[in-house]
Amino acid sequence: MNRGRSFVLGSLLIVVVAISGIDMIYTAASDSQNAVLYFAPDTLNVQLGQSFNLSICIANVQDLNGWGLSLSWNSSVIELNLASSRAVTEGPFLKDKTSTIFSTSQYTVGSGHLSISCSAWGSSYNPWGSNGVSTNGTLFSICFIGVGFGQTSITINDISLSSSSPWSGISYDPPKSAQITVTGPVIITHKVSISIECPLTMFVYDSALINATVLNLGTQDESNVNLSILVNNILVKNQIGLLGFGSSFSISYLWTPSLAGTFTITANTQPITNEASLDVVVAPLPIHPNILIVSNEGGSEQQYGTSLKEFKSALDKAGQGYDVWIESNSLPNGSVVSLDLLERYGLVIWTSGDYGRQVMASFECNILEAYFRNGGNIIFEGERVVTSDIARGFDLPSALLYVNLKGMGLQTTGIASSISNLITNGLTFPITWARTPTYGPDKVVPLRITLTGDFGIPLKEDYGSVEVMHYQGTNYSAVVSVDASYVGYGRVVYYSFSLFCLPSDAQQKLVSGSIDWLNAGAPPPT
Question: Which domain does 111 fall in, by range?
């Protein structure tokens, strides 16, 4: 091919590419068996301050399903036009055939380097998607602006072309560079662009960093540029500085809203005026539930496990919000509760169900006792907890539940009322088991604590447990309550059976009544 013909072809390409896509280039490249990457146009003269678009195209490719590359140029001659909303735009080559993931690297002004990639997203087993594309077309378009007199090459580097076959690349010819010449009379322009970054949603009292950046898109250095950040038109931060030709500077403001609502965040500049804004929705603080259910699943020899499902159902029916913690300290990587966690809640429901051995660990007993002594309220449930704790030398029965153990494996048909109060409200007695207890509940009776003065003289009965319900035909306690609120401690309702043994209606009423009693408080005994 002679030089005269090459000149004509090059000249025609600038005119024809916008009309007929890549046909001319592809014809010239058809002798190669490899894929061909090229610019359209590949030679261009522009004026200083003029924006222009280039397309990066591909021809002679088979089964393309993903690509990546980088572009490099002399940023003192041309610069990425960040003021354009379409500075880098995906072409139709892949996206017209399949869904794609198109991305660009973050551009640093003055670096003259940008990475771009795209991959098909399909349902096939391979990482790129399903079938690749075998045709010619535009990969992407990029918008530049002339910022200085002279000539620069734009080169394509770091090329990766992937097919739909896993780990299979596509060969390509070394791509030619584009040649851009910036000429024309010296035209002085004063122009800046502004960008602003801030979360679009947040909660009251959350803190968010507002970042504002101004970029000099004009033809000369600018002095005394005033960049400001405003919240609902109230100035919160500004900075005055020198803004060199093609350079930028940023300011930040740490914002902590104290009110809910929609706020307009604005960044503007003076004396070269420009403005950017966005709306931020500040939501009220989420309502933290007051109840934590701890499902204690660290024991052994259980048949059904804990009553987590039954407690959740009872609270759902009562319209009570709650969080759940699965306590599995016996597992290699099991979760363990902490006092800090419990003290975020006003009421802790601790369910051990029918776990028969090693039901509680010593640190769990200590944490529950500390929570109780700090004023926390507890619903404690489990049919073999006391037997297990006493066998292991723990003091939970006397330090928290205030019961004495008289035996284990109680056989009974259900429970009956011992007194009437908020805990028994709505319940009809006797209540027959819907499910027979697995091992038989612990045989417990109430324990009372008496304070003594000098010489061991009793002062008054202080606190301890009161039997609320007992097992039918026995003198053993099914439900006891502990009120030590008047000495600065909390309150406890202890079920010595598994909640899942009761009919569902009785479950909901017992849990609701227990919560009402725990929240009600009571005057100290006289």
Answer: 3-183
State whether 424 and 279 are in the same domain: no
Q: Are strands 491-495 and 377-381 parallel, antiparallel or unpaired?
A: parallel
> Which of 183, 214, 236 is at the close of a domain?
183
Enter the DSSP assignment of 218. S
Contact 129, 63 (CB under 8 A): no
Report the predicted TM-score, pTM, of the whole model to 2 decimal places: 0.48
304: DSSP letter: S
CATH code: domain of residue 396? 3.40.50.880
pLDDT band at 448 (very low <50, low <70, confident <90, very high): confident
Q: How does pLDDT run across 407-421, given as a tens digit for each residue? A: 999 999 999 999 999
Q: How far is CA 40 from CA 44, 138, 178, in A?
A: 10, 9, 8
Domain count, the chain: 3
Q: CA 236 to CA 357: how far, in whole Å?
A: 62
Residue with tokens 């209540």: 431
The separation between CA 230 and the C-alpha centre of its own chain, rounded to angstroms, equals 28
* Average pLDDT of the residues in 257-272: 92
**CATH code: domain of residue 88:** 2.60.40.680
For residue 27, the number of C-alpha atoms closer than 13 Å in the C-beta half-sphere is 10
Query: How many C-beta atoms surround the C-beta of residue 492 within 10 A?
Result: 25
**C-alpha–C-alpha distance, residues 79 and 245, integer Å:** 11
Tell me the backbone φ, ψ of residue 101, rounded to 5 degrees: -115, 110
Considering the domain architecture, whether residues 218 and 328 belong to the same structural domain is answered as no
Q: Specify the 3-state DSSP secondary structure of 399.
A: helix
Neighbours of 372 (CB within 10 A): 23
Same domain, residue pair 199 and 176: no
